[in-house]
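hi!! sorry for the late reply, been swamped w classes. u asked for the two structures so here they r. pasted raw, havent cleaned anything up. first the sequence of the first protein and right below it the tokens
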Amino acid sequence: MTSSCVFLFPGQGSQHIGMGKAFFDAYSSVKHLFQAASEAVGKNFEKLCFEGPEADLARTDNVQPAITLVNLACLQVLREEGVSPSAAAGHSLGEYSALCAAGVFTVAETIRLVQIRGAAMQDAAERNPGGMTAIFGLGKDALAAICEDVKDAGSVEVANHNSPAQVVLTGAKEALQKAAELAKKRGAKLSVPLKVSGAWHSRFMGPARERMFQALAECSLAPPSIPVMCNITAQVYPNQPDGIREALVAQLISPVLWADSMERLIRDGHRVFVEVGPGKALAGLMRDINREAKVQGVQSPDDLPKLRALLA
């Protein structure tokens, strides 16, 4: 069974204890995938994903390979069930899963790369402490102006343009607090500090770039077999390996243009999207971006009949 659908892969923040277990219990291929990934990077992913504890799972150097593994487990099941995408996109960390789905990286390379990415970002966050805050009800241009207005308190940047209703800011904690207060005065409905251990997608992640550049230089990249949206441009990834490497390194310090990426896919004629991995964050964002688009999450065998009905 194939149909025209876009695979969307979630990133950091979508994790929860028990993620991936339903497919692990039902598919021997998923058990093998978990075992191979655990041996490759020296982590017990079965324990980490199914038992936690939450604090261990949430560590950036653990959660990045763990979420990616669950994304790839869901991808494996979809392939076995005969569902293949006509395009793909991934939110931040999820971009590595999307590129794997397009054949750019092997599964083993993908797990290795996100293990290095998570460790490099954790180190950068320890060197340059910071945080992130989601702002609801104020546009990215208004928030970019607020970042400029609070720069005396510290560096704050737009990290994610997630939807017309949600923009995430990233940077120094004191400056983030001032930006949130100013945003409220200028009409924002709500601000929510995110449970993250660093200022992702900011200049604070600069020290992680060299390690990612090195890691990406050491692996061979195939041209994408399907269009994959690029976070930092909201355009389709280039075919050239160097262009892909450069975008993934730049992604560490650049905003994720998620809303623009989804709008581009919709303009290109896509209407059916599959959230491949844990949580329902991307389906929620799509409701704010375009209510006519249909999104079905796939993270357990119970989701497969719903997906078949949607694709029929």
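now the second protein. again sequence first, tokens right under
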Amino acid sequence: MCIAHRLPRVVGALVAVVMIMVGAVVSATPAQAASSSTTLCKGFSDCVGEGRTHSGYAGVYRGSFWNMRSGHNCTNYVAYRLTHGRLAARPAGANEAGSWGTAARRAGIPVTRTPRVGAVAFWRARHHGASSGGHVAYVEAVRPDGSIVISEDHLGGTFMWRVLRKNGGAWPSGFIQFPQSDGSPSGKLLWAQSAGDGGLRLSGTAGEPDVAAGQREYVVSVGGPREAAGVETFQFTTPYFRFIRLKTLRTRGATTMYLYALNTPGTAGTDTLLGTTPVTIS
């Protein structure tokens, strides 16, 4: 089993959305294992001893990547691979492993049935041996017979490499072809609404592919883009990929709200407008 992430809830000006992201692969039946899946190695040291790399994950797996839960699990490992040696941004909605394919499609990221080296193989919930949370793995090789070689991690400390036979009983639901990022924050304004007495409540999500999980800076402008004269703006920080924020404003009535994620100074990329929406502040 493989658990992706669990966020605590913070009450007050910053309210973190609790996100339980579960991704798992359960053992296939003996017939399936024999016909569609072959384990090449298990464990960091054993795999390295057989010439199959973990790409440095063994030394840092207790850290969080893409704000996934740290340690042995499928989503944290794949997020690590997507941000080390390459640069890919986490799409909004990529929470538990089984959600990655849908989240990628919604973000305009190519999702295909054709494997490619460097693609992310994903299993929807309960598809071909996956649990209710799904599973993700990293495609290391595509063989001439159409089979693929994957590396993956699981809750419980089982890092492994496997060969999956084409269209067999362990074959993934699809493959996500993540594009190269320029390092800019990536995310989405989810919603905004009046909270009464001048209050604005908003929710958004963002990450930065070339920065470790941690504090993220946002700017909100009300009444126009942040560079426009006379608009009301405020800035805040949150460590969470998805958040809810409450702020009391001077502005009243029908207006437009803009949410920006600020690029971390000294890193590649630029500030990103995550979205804009009309809102009436009462």
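hope this helps!! also noticed smth abt the second:
The chain has two domains: 2-176, 186-281.
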